[in-house]
Amino acid sequence: MKLTKLSIAVLLSVTAAGVFAQAKPAEPDYTLAFNVAATTDYRYRGISQTRYKPALSAGVDFSHKNGIYLGAWGSTIKWIKDYSVSGGLELDLYGGYKGSLTKDVGYDVGVLHYAYVGNNLANALGGGVFANANTTELYGALTYGPVTAKYSRSVGRLFGSLGSKGSGYFDVTGNFDLGNGFSVAPHIGYTSVSKNAVAFYGDDLSYTDYSVTLAKDFGNGVVGTAAIVGTDASKIFYTSGANAKYLGKAGLVVGLKYNF
Q: What is the pTM of this model?
């Protein structure tokens, strides 16, 4: 069988393409990423943690290709100092496993511990009003396309509230690509606090929070965000102890994050 110049050229190009395809770099066994950020207000589940003041944060994330991940994240806060003489830093430690149920459905299960460094909230206001603020939650999430539904449940007291063991948080968040580096993330969540805490404090601590976040990826790891955040939380319970500020009102939060 004779080969024409054209058929030889085609054969060589196909062979070369196969060689280069095989030479594609292998997926790394793990990745290690860092981030630092500044925001005009640190909101957690809609509630301001900094009394509407700016916050600085930093984090580190380790993820393995088998789905296991570990991480740590810290931020400045103010709410514990409103009831206590110390506790100006939140440190979150977490780990879990991510995988897929089907081609379109992913899952994420893990544990998250919130540590409030140096806090003595258990002794605040003479004691008997709050427990230590450190909190541990178990969580599970399902993702379908751009939408994630997640449920978190505390294994002990929730952020220092007496009688709040077994409280939970359910939220649904979307993340939609708008093109040109822009994305929008609508979110709604519901904090369900144990009825024992309601009986102790004489007020319903459960509430709904919502937000809509517009993000812009500027490249080189820099991401800017602007979010409208609000809640229907109790104005009696979710008010700063030292400054009598309601911490759940609607507002604009602007942030800048650098991932590296």
A: 0.86
